[in-house]
Amino acid sequence: MTQVFFFAVLAFAFGIAQVFAISESDESPAEIEKIVADLDTEFQAAVERNDADTMDRILADDMVLVLGNGTVYTKTDQLEEARSKIIVYEQQKEIDNSQRVRVWENTAVVTAKLWIKGTREGKAFERKVWFSDIYVKTKKGWQYVFGQASLPLPKEP
Predict the structure, then answer these.
(1) Are the beta carbons of 128 and 104 closer than 8 angstroms?
(2) Which residue has the higher pLDDT, 44 or 96?
(3) Beta pairing, strands 141-149 & 123-138
(4) Is residue 94 scored above 50 in pLDDT?
(5) Which of 25, 93, 114, 134 fits a 20 to 30 Å CA distance from 153?
(6) Do β-strands 59-66 and 72-74 pair in parallel, antiparallel, or remain unpaired?
(7) Which pLDDT belongs to residue 24?
(8) What H or E segment, with its residue span, contains residue 144?
(9) What's the rounded Cα separation, in Å, for the pair 38 and 125?
(10) Going edge to edge, which strands form the sheet with 107-120?
């Protein structure tokens, strides 16, 4: 019984040490905001170029994206879509100085308005959406773990 207790305490202590190893940061909240803002901008540019390698580096392995209609995309889905070039983007950009980053310790949420324009399987599309992207500080650095995009916004007059 004592050995089991010892190993349980050791495992708990190791887990706590891992949390603190990730939690400790020399970066101020303002520095984190900039790092994550730049990373999300880099991600949007990678999507626009169908750059699966950059997307792969930024996306966490268990990342999911939920669209306004309820469709769920995994990291694998997004990388396959980029590699197949089923979508050719003319643009995929955050617009109107809308990007905001909010930081809570090892979690950062990016919100912005996105203007997407291109073709999907030869059919033209264009829409604007609001999105929220959640990044978490991991041993690999900041990674994109969850995203949610609105339904297309109404056309502006």
Answers:
(1) no
(2) 44
(3) antiparallel
(4) yes
(5) 134
(6) antiparallel
(7) 55
(8) strand 141-149
(9) 26
(10) 72-74, 59-66, 141-149, 123-138, 107-120, 87-104
Identify whether the C-beta of residue 94 lies closer than 8 Å to the C-beta of residue 107. no
Q: Which distant-in-sequence residues (6+ apart) come within 8 Å of 113 by Cβ?
A: 94, 95, 96, 98, 128, 129, 130, 153
- The position carrying tokens 């694998």 is 76
Own/partner pairs, 34-40, CB within 8 angstroms, 24+ separation: 35/142, 36/101, 36/103, 36/108, 36/110, 36/135, 36/142, 37/99, 37/101, 37/110, 39/135, 39/142, 39/144, 40/94, 40/99, 40/101, 40/110, 40/112, 40/133, 40/135, 40/144
Q: Are 120 and 89 in contact (CB under 8 A)?
A: no
Torsion of CA 46, 102, 148, 91, to 10 degrees: -30
156 to each of 10, 50, 127, 152, 153, how far by Cα in Å? Answer: 59, 28, 11, 11, 9
- Average per-residue pLDDT for the chain: 87
Instruction: Write the single-letter amino acid at 69.
Output: N
Helix and strand element counts for the chain (H, E): 4, 6
Q: Token pair for residue 114?
A: 């996105």
Can you say whether the dihedral through the CA atoms of 31, 37, 40, 46 is positive or negative? Answer: negative
**pLDDT on residue 16:** 38
